[in-house]
Amino acid sequence: MGPVIIMFDKKTVREIDIRNKKVLVRVDYNVPLDDELSVTDDTRIRLSLPTIEYLRENNAKIILMSHLGRPKGKPEDRFRMDPAALKLGEMLGIKVKKFDQVYSAEIKEYIDNQMKSGEIVILENLRFDPGEKSNDSEFSKSLASLADIYVDDAFGAAHRAHASIVGVPEFIPAVSGLLLEKEIETLAALLESPGRPFLAILGGSKVSDKIQVIKNLLSKVDCLILGGGMTYTFLKAKGLEIGTSICEDGQLAYALEMIDLAEKNNVKLLLPIDIAIAREFDRDAETREVPVESIPSDWMGLDIGTKTIELFTGDITVAKTIFWNGPVGVFEWERFSKGTKSIAFAVAGSKAVTVAGGGDTVAAIKKYGLSEKFSHISSGGGASMELLEGKILPGIAALMKK
Predict the structure, then answer these.
(1) CATH number for the 186-388 domain, one of 3.40.50.300, 3.40.50.20, 3.40.50.1260, 3.40.50.2300?
(2) Helix 49-57 and helix 82-92, axial crossing angle in degrees, nearest 10
(3) For residue range 38-84, what is the model confidence (pLDDT) as tens digits?
(4) How many CB atoms lie within 10 A of CB 293?
(5) Helix, strand, coil percentages, rounded to 5, for the chain
(6) Over the stretch 131-189, which tens digit does the pLDDT of each residue have?
(7) Burial level of 249, CB count in 10 A (0-12/13-18/19+)?
(8) Does 382 participate in catalysis according to the annotation?
(9) Are the C-beta atoms of residues 343 and 312 closer than 8 Å to each other?
């Protein structure tokens, strides 16, 4: 069963005439590279293909732009877009021309006079120019001058008010790509018309990263499962000894407030009942499982325990809609991966509409070979969380309304 579709109120690439036009597409090719500068995971490039293929079918001149990594506003060889251009070319079986600048008069001249319809070119890493992050108007204008139409297909960057996201739409007609449309519709459907029971699983280490998300979800979900490092803040707030486990003392009052809010909203809030603990934060540390009431003062929690897995799985099995963000333990280490692995398999095996968001969550799903078993895996961790907080994303706001 696919997610319920909520109407997206922005124009998409299908609703504008792009035939034989020059189209500037913001993609998210922030892909991982190895030491040889080869792409180690091409998911983000693959997700951009439906929009690119649609533009090719309509004989558009396709100009792609993206950021990669965190260069400091100037060129750095390890962050060049060449590996992404090469990988895209391989996937499409064509040559993708890559420019060594973000913008130049020569690039504009090439696009205007030499580029053929259906051809694809890619600009250099946007963040090599300080104008990208500062949303400089002149920089935006230069980018916009390369094309007739702007298409935003970079959901992973939709929460950033950068030049390539919000600046360019001020100068040329701006519409959504097919990936962006699918992301927004899927996540909006979660919040507006989920099948019930609607269950959310939030993990990860910090409560402070999820403050608004927890609050917003407590008005939407039937059951909220909390796992990972942030649960120790909740356990400590309830008066339990958490030993040397990670904890944000500044969030204890907030944790109690959320426990009260869950009760008030009649939301079942599940916290771990047993924990896999270790003496030190180490891959090979000695480990044992203890009830949450019995964590020794010089040990730390690094994963959920067996009884907690059973407790959480019970609710996962009966849910009709599941949103998962954040691992429930240090899953990168085999010894502390049982919780996250069990949750991943339980969610993947459920009959619910299943949506996963966030880098570490996606990494876990891929690690266990479960990608195909999820209804939707979001390509943008930060953007999906801001959307679930109820925020308006700058990248969406900048697009033309239907």
Answers:
(1) 3.40.50.1260
(2) 60
(3) 999 898 999 999 999 999 999 999 999 999 999 988 999 999 999 99
(4) 10
(5) 40, 15, 40
(6) 999 999 999 999 999 999 999 999 989 999 999 999 999 999 999 999 999 999 888 88
(7) exposed
(8) yes
(9) yes
**DSSP-derived 3-state class of residue 316:** helix
Q: How far apart are CA 78 and CA 98, in angstroms?
A: 15
Looking at 73, 250, 359, 369, which residue is catalytic? 359
Question: Residue 14 and residue 185: Cα distance in Å, rounded?
Answer: 16
Residue 134, classified by CB atoms within 10 Å of its CB into exposed (0-12), middle (13-18) or buried (19+), is middle
Cα separation, 43 vs 179, whole angstroms: 12
Which of 14, 206, 335, 366 is catalytic? The answer is 206
Where do the CATH 3.40.50.1260 domains begin and end in the chain? 13-179, 186-388
- pLDDT at residue 1, rounded to an integer: 35
pLDDT digits (tens, 9 = 90+) for 91-105: 999 999 999 999 999
Can you name the CATH fold of 13-179? Rossmann fold (3.40.50)
Query: pTM for the complete prediction?
Result: 0.86
206 flagged as catalytic = yes
* Active-site residue, selected from the candidate residues 89, 349, 382, 390: 382
Which of helix, strand or coil describes residue 346?
A: helix
CB atoms closer than 10 angstroms to residue 339:
27
Active-site residue identified among 10, 44, 210, 220: 44
